[in-house]
């Protein structure tokens, strides 16, 4: 019952605060860029709590019999012009298509009541590590007037300011407007900045140090460009669906891998004083239906996630991020359990702010806020980019509406004070009051023009004032500090060698080694569009097309490449020209018939192929964000077949390099006799060519491991792995009924053999594992210690100011579409009895799993330490990633009845070993690592009877040593 109310409240909130009934346009990023693909705008005068589909279907199915219906139709035909009927038919057809089948499928009522209410929002300032910042923040906030407070919570509107998100300053107290910029693989829309490898490549390195260094370089670039808040890293999507359009922005399909990579990235970014944003909280696993209207439906889909799965899978990396001190969380577009994520009190108030003890501020994804007061009560702190339900129209659900809601008493002023204090405390926590690091002048680049001069409020037709907006400051670092060094290292270590028959790799820089051939030049042919420059890396806005070599996916997570080193150019440079003859055919249709010699004369053929995807607001090559399948794209499979069959007249050796946003099915060619080596090079960023050349000629010994499973078909990943491409209701439902069983956990449970398993990757050397020791540091007990009380949150005056203070100053010159905090007239304030969500007054007990940043501190205590010895037994120096997995097959007692995956990753360490060298590698296992989420006890429970099994090895299916705790 109560759940129901909350879900409908969010829609109700929307109805109350926004009833103008305007056209709702599709989501657009840069208006000029994507018009071509996304279809027409939809005329939507309906509100979200109505059912427009049902309403539109009325005329054809009124309750008359078939004969009467025919008669009616005939009369109608006579009455109306043919033309009108055609228009109606066309509209209905367009609507049905846009609704992705929803029109015909509509039978079910929207589901309500899956997300319990959790009110009020726990205030920030309750943990020691933030208490100084909260003290300073509270002092400042106490001096602010209402308008200043509202300014801090609400963006100024799309393209109102130089960054993708901007807040206005609290001028009287000297608090600056903040600039928020994407993230997560570099600075979006910026010049002279680095295009780092994408998250998926970072995950494939399994190198904690590189994760941190990339974050730090990214943070430094953001700071030097005047950005306060970086919109990354990304851990949602987690990768439930391997074809998910944005999986590549995150670090791989496992919560522990994602969590560690995110925490390291956050540490790096925030050490530079820039606020990191962990996104998208939570369940944003697919692009189709992720937000209202983008897919023709009035509502976004719902990701339905059960409590245990939330804790052990999708929420886990967010918990790691909070533990790492992340200062901002971005709530996602879609609904979670049928309540919009940015208005879901259970998620934001209960899970994030109470249980995980999050001290920073929650910002909405761009237009993910769907209600006014409702979302503030549910725990949202900042509305981005400020515009409310409609893109770029300047009408906010907050801004002046928030001012009104405080003045009319519908939003408790305490909540507003907490919202503001959370933002200001984050600013202090990151040291942004230090003027030597942050001059408070805002970004020195513009997201909206490449010219030196431009308008700051580009989105307002009233802003005619041209200023210097691009100072073209190079932030890429010089010499030893050049960020391209890190970018290249990540790209190289994030390259995964999965097949190397007869040790065909590495190739030698000087060609042949053996005596008999040593006078002959080696001949290498490079094939595939993915090896070359194409039309240049920045040919399409937000990298929204697949052409040339693939360095990143598309969408808000992509950046302008300052350059992109192509495989062809790097490989030509890498080989000794006197001894190796390299020819290149950077096309997927080389002239094999006309010029067969280009294949038959080669000793080695290197084929580059790819698979691309991205954010749902762009569609390209028939891909609307999410991939349509797991195949190699643009005819790459065929190219590999042809090349491997013809290379050296069947005696040549073919090496396949795949640049891809995620797993691809390789069955069509991986076992062909000519295909000797296969490399998964992920998305390498600007240094692409150098990275692959280093691996191919052995300058660097490959050490990447797969951050996902490569299955033989999409079906092998299970039903839950399939994108919902067609609406299955007015609010499309994706129920995560597979629970914990995604990726390798699914393959294990159902005994499916992957082509290449999660965590797999080859090296040019060999490693031996020995001597696993489990050192018990603490005794097993089922429950963590009681929740600590924490510190007192700051208190504020709760008097409601006079509405006259909030009026537009006389003679104020407004810019059209800019979001101001002011109200027009005092009579707009109508104090009254406002409805609150059901459950609002129910007292919530603080979670026993909470008590500090990241949850109960005992969850982070180390209970067991595991060590293993690893020795390099081959002929080259190299790095190995040792992975630790935990299993519960030997537990007894109560936990015996609990369903556990066969194994779960709980740690990894990368170690460099010279030839013959042996090192001991250590893993720490925390209480959380050894526990499961008990939905009845609402706490983490450690199976304490019997033994917990610990296995360490080189991949999820190559576990060499076993021990017990
Ligand atoms: C994306 C976010 C991004 C925001 C701002 C949204 O479309 O989902 O990840 O940070 O735009 O560009």
From TrEMBL:
Organism field: Glarea lozoyensis (strain ATCC 20868 / MF5171)
GO BP, one annotated term: glucan catabolic process
PANTHER family: BETA-GLUCOSIDASE, BETA-GLUCOSIDASE E-RELATED
One Pfam match: Glyco_hydro_3_C
Record flagged with keyword Cell membrane: yes
EC number(s) on file: 3.2.1.21
Similarity comment text for this entry: Belongs to the glycosyl hydrolase 3 family.
Key words, A-Z: Carbohydrate metabolism, Cell membrane, Glycoprotein, Glycosidase, Hydrolase, Membrane, Polysaccharide degradation, Signal-anchor, Transmembrane, Transmembrane helix
InterPro entries xref list: Cellulose_deg_GH3 (IPR050288), Fn3-like (IPR026891), GH (IPR017853), Glyco_hydro_3_C (IPR002772), Glyco_hydro_3_C_sf (IPR036881), Glyco_hydro_3_N (IPR001764), Glyco_hydro_3_N_sf (IPR036962), Ig-like_fold (IPR013783)
Protein's UniProt name: Probable beta-glucosidase E
């Amino acid at each position: 019952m109560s759940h129901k109310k909350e879900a409908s409240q969010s829609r109700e909130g929307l109805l109350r605060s926004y009833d103008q009934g305007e056209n709702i346009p599709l989501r657009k990023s840069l208006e000029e860029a994507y018009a071509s693909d996304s279809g027409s705008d939809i005329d939507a005068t309906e509100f979200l709590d109505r059912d427009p589909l049902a309403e539109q279907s009325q005329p054809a199915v009124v309750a008359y019999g078939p004969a009467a219906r025919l008669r009616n139709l005939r009369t109608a035909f006579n009455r109306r012009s043919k033309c009108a009927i055609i228009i109606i038919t066309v509209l209905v057809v367009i609507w049905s298509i846009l609704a992705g089948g929803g029109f015909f499928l509509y039978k079910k009522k929207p589901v309500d009541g899956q997300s319990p209410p959790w009110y009020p929002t726990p205030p920030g300032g309750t943990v020691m590590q933030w208490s100084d910042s909260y003290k300073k923040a509270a002092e400042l906030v106490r001096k602010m007037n209402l308008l200043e407070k509202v300014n801090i919570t609400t963006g100024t509107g799309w393209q109102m300011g130089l960054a993708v998100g901007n807040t206005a300053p609290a001028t009287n107290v000297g608090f600056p407007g903040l600039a928020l910029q994407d993230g997560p693989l570099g600075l979006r829309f910026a010049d002279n900045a680095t295009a780092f490898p994408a998250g998926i490549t970072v995950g494939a390195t399994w190198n904690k140090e590189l994760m941190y260094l990339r974050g730090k370089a990214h943070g430094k670039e953001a700071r030097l460009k005047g950005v306060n808040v970086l919109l990354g890293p990304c851990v949602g999507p987690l990768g439930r669906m391997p074809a998910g359009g944005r999986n590549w922005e995150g670090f791989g399909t496992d919560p522990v891998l994602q969590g560690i990579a995110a925490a390291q990235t956050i540490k790096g970014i925030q050490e530079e004083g820039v606020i990191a944003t962990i996104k998208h909280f939570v369940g944003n696993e697919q692009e189709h239906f992720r937000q209202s209207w983008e897919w023709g439906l009035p509502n976004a889909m719902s990701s339905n996630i059960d409590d245990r799965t939330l804790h052990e899978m999708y929420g886990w990396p967010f918990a790691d991020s909070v533990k790492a001190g992340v200062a901002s969380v971005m709530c996602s577009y879609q609904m979670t359990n049928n309540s919009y994520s940015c208005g879901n009190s259970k998620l934001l108030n209960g899970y994030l702010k109470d249980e995980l003890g999050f001290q920073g501020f929650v910002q909405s994804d761009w237009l993910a806020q769907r209600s006014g007061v409702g979302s503030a009560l549910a725990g949202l702190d900042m509305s981005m980019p400020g515009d409310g339900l409609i893109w770029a129209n300047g009408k906010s659900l907050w801004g002046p509406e928030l001012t009104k809601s405080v003045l009319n008493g519908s939003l408790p002023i305490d909540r507003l004070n907490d919202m503001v204090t959370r933002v200001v405390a984050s600013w202090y926590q990151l040291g942004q009051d230090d003027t030597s690091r942050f001059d408070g002048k805002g970004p020195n680049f513009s997201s909206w023009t490449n010219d030196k001069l431009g308008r700051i409020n580009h989105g307002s037709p009233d802003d005619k004032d041209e200023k210097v907006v691009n100072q073209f400051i190079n932030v890429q670092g010089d010499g030893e500090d050049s960020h391209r060094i890190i970018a290249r290292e990540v790209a190289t270590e994030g390259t995964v060698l999965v097949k190397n028959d007869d040790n065909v790799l590495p190739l030698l820089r000087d060609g042949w080694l053996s005596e008999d051939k040593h006078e002959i030049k080696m001949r290498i042919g490079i094939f595939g569009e993915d090896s070359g420059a194409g039309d240049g890396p920045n040919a399409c806005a937000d990298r929204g097309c697949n052409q040339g070599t693939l360095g990143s996916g598309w969408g808000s997570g992509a950046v302008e490449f300052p350059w992109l080193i192509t495989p062809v150019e790097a490989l030509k440079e890498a080989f000794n020209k006197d001894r190796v003859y390299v020819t290149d055919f950077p096309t997927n249709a080389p002239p094999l018939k006309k010029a067969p010699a280009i294949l038959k004369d080669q000793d080695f053929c290197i084929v580059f192929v790819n698979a691309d995807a991205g954010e749902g607001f762009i569609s390209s090559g028939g891909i609307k964000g999410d991939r349509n399948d797991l195949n190699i794209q643009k005819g790459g499979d065929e190219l590999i077949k042809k090349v491997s069959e013809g290379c050296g007249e069947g005696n040549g050796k073919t090496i396949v390099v795949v640049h891809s946003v995620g797993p691809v099915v390789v069955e069509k060619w991986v076992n062909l006799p000519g295909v000797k080596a296969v490399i998964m090079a992920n998305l390498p960023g600007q240094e692409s060519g150098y990275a692959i050349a280093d691996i191919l000629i052995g300058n660097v010994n490959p050490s990447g491991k797969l951050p996902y499973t490569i299955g033989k078909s999409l079906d092998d990943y299970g039903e839950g792995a399939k994108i919902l491409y067609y609406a299955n209701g007015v609010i499309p439902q994706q129920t995560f009924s597979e629970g914990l069983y995604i990726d390798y956990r699914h393959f294990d449970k159902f005994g499916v053999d992957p082509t290449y398993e999660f965590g797999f990757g080859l090296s040019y050397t060999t490693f031996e594992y020995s001597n696993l020791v489990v050192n018990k540091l603490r005794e097993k007990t089922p429950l963590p210690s009681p929740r600590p009380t924490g510190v007192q949150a700051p208190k504020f005056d709760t008097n409601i100011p006079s509405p006259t203070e909030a009026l537009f100053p006389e003679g104020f010159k407004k810019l059209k579409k800019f979001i101001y905090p002011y109200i027009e007239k005092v009579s707009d304030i109508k104090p009254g009895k406002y409805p609150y969500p059901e459950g609002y007054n129910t007292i919530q007990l603080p979670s026993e799993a909470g008590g500090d940043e990241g949850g109960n501190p005992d969850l982070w205590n180390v209970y067991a330490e595991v060590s293993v010895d690893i020795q390099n037994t081959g002929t080259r120096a190299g790095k190995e990633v040792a992975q630790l997995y935990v299993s519960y097959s030997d537990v007894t007692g109560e936990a015996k009845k609990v369903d556990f995956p066969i194994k779960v990753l709980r740690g990894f360490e990368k170690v460099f070993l010279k030839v013959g060298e042996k090192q001991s590698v250590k893993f720490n296992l925390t209480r959380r690592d050894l526990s499961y989420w008990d939905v009845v006890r609402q706490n983490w429970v450690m199976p304490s009877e019997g033994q917990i099994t610990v296995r360490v090895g080189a991949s999820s299916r190559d576990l060499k040593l076993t021990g017990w705790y």
